[in-house]
């Protein structure tokens, strides 16, 4: 009997932003080699979960736990790690709206990031990954993703279109090869052809949804079904009012895409009430 794959385990996670509670007890377990989808209405807390996993300083974890659990049962407390330590431990977040870094070429950024992830004990100033080895790997990954090598010479996200930003995130995913990746609405702002290309690229990089492949655990945050076309989720989770209220297979993603969330709101009135309260608080804060 083979050992269980390494897991990202989230239990009872409560997260607040500027004093307002957004996540109200999230439980989620993802194994390496598994693809999970996270869907839900705007403002339900999906992006908050991604930021909390990566340790964004504006997102205050008030209770609960996030752990990396090895096949032998050893548990590592993610919440005790700084964001850079989480990245070195194998966690990755593809942002919904990536930041631009003028003056820093994408290739240079990737060389530093890849070196630090593959050599977690490296100190600043120590030698980077050999240039020839890095260039060969970068060229191979860009060819695999049908990307022009000139793209890597540009400054990180500076002047990029929405589609170029998302492709840059996917290239980072390919080069860093994390254990667990959270993809926050990678399809946002893309046309149908670009979403299809993104879906194919993610599937090529990751596990393709095959449990036990020991490659990459992927959490895809999305509103739409198309990004899941080549990344059939082992489980689809629905977030409402700051909690995951229902989980199912790929058919649940298809239902939500076609019919929306009315059945979910009717089935979970407490979560629907929490959703409404969060919306009202957001309106007051915006005034």
Describe this structure in words.
This protein has 287 residues and is α/β, with parallel strands linked by helices. The protein has a domain at 7-96 and 177-286: Rossmann fold (3-Layer(aba) Sandwich), CATH 3.40.50.300. It is 37% helix and 26% strand. The strands form three sheets. A six-stranded mixed beta sheet has the order 6-9-10-3-11-12, with helices on both faces. It is globular and about 60 Å long. The termini are far apart.
Number of strands: 12
The coarse overall form would be: globular
CATH topology group of the domain at 7-96 and 177-286: Rossmann fold
Distance between the termini: 58 Å
Strand content: 25-35%
Q: Overall mean pLDDT score?
A: 89
The residue fraction in helices comes out at 25-40%
The H/E string reads EEEHEEHEEHHEHEHEEEHHH
Which CATH C-level class of the domain at 7-96 and 177-286 is it?
Alpha Beta
CATH superfamily of the domain at 7-96 and 177-286: P-loop containing nucleotide triphosphate hydrolases
Question: Describe the biggest sheet?
Answer: 6 strands, mixed
Write a brief caption for the model.
The protein is an alpha/beta fold and 287 residues long. The chain has a domain at 7-96 and 177-286: Rossmann fold, CATH 3.40.50.300.
């Amino acid at each position: 009997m083979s050992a269980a794959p390494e897991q990202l385990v989230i239990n009872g996670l409560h997260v607040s932003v500027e004093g307002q509670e957004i996540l109200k007890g999230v439980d989620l377990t993802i194994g390496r080699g598994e693809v999970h989808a996270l869907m839900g209405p705007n403002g339900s807390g999906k992006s908050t979960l991604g930021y909390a996993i990566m340790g964004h300083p504006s997102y205050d974890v008030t209770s609960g736990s996030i752990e990396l659990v090895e096949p032998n049962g050893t548990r590592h407390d993610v919440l005790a790690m700084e964001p850079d330590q989480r990245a070195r431990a194998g966690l990755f977040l593809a942002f919904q709206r990536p930041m631009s870094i003028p003056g820093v070429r994408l290739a240079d950024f990737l060389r530093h990031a890849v070196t630090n992830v593959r050599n977690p004990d490296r100190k600043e100033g120590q030698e980077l990954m050999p240039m020839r080895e890095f260039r060969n790997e970068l060229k191979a990954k860009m060819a695999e993703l049908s990307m022009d090598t000139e793209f890597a010479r540009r400054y990180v996200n500076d002047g990029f279109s929405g589609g170029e930003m998302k492709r840059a995130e996917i290239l980072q995913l390919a080069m860093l090869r994390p254990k667990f990746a959270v993809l926050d609405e990678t399809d946002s702002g893309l046309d149908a052809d670009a979403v299809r290309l993104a879906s194919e690229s993610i599937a090529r990089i990751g596990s393709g949804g095959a449990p036990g492949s020991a490659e990459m655990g992927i959490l895809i945050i999305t509103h739409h079904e198309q990004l899941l076309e080549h990344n059939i989720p082992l489980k689809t989770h629905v977030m409402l009012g700051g909690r995951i209220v229902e989980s199912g297979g790929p058919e649940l993603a298809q239902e939500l895409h076609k019919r929306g969330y009315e059945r979910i709101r009717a089935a979970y009135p407490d979560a629907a009430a929490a959703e409404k309260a969060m919306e009202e608080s957001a309106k007051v804060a915006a005034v």
